[in-house]
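Field guide to reading this record: the first block holds the primary sequence, the second block holds the structure written as discrete tokens, and the final block holds curator observations. Each block starts with its own label. This record concerns HIT domain-containing protein, catalogued under organism Amphimedon queenslandica.

BLOCK 1 — SEQUENCE
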Amino acid sequence: MAKRYFSSSDEEDLATDSKHAPLKSKTKRKPTGHWSQGLLKSMENPDTVVKSDEKCVMINDMYPKARHHYLILPRENISGISSLGKQNLELLHHLLKFGQDYVKTEHSNDDTLIPDYPQFKYGYHAIPSMNRLHMHVISCDFDSPSLKNKKHWNSFTTDFFIDAARLIKMVEEKGRVVIDKEYYESLLKKNLSCHVCRREQRNMPTLKSHIRTHFKK
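BLOCK 2 — STRUCTURE
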């Protein structure tokens, strides 16, 4: 049986999709290690690694929320954005440039699905699902069967997704990342709305159908 490697989005699916919810059992199961360690395994798996250098590793998100969805993890053991300080500024700049350089090299000739709209976003979830620092590099088409519900959508299209440059500026000015947990959790419950025109949509199927109206024909 092939080994399975978890990604940040994988953990979200397990938490929000009932068919993957853990079943209660009277039989004690042998511990297999905390799911947060899955990213560490993916960093060592040649099938998931996209690119790497001496400071970081880029991997494919196992449950991509768009046509292109990568995670960049530092080799340095940093638990998450709440552990960041000014001592990490050089690394944060490196992660952002690493992602931007990859997109420029590998996706510069991609057709822009949505005219006059950024092709990619670079950033961090305000309240990360996994206990390991990782920056998302995700294309803004959000065209993926793995993008299933309101939580998935709002985690990438509201301020819950903290732009990498904004996070760097926060650390530069405040010396740390300041998170209002109640505020950011409320963003995940917002009504569904198109990330391009901000028109509200009734449900995920209608939202996905609507987004395609913005794509180039």
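BLOCK 3 — OBSERVATIONS
The CA atoms of residues 47 and 187 lie 34 Å apart.
Confidence is low (pLDDT under 50) at residues 1-33.
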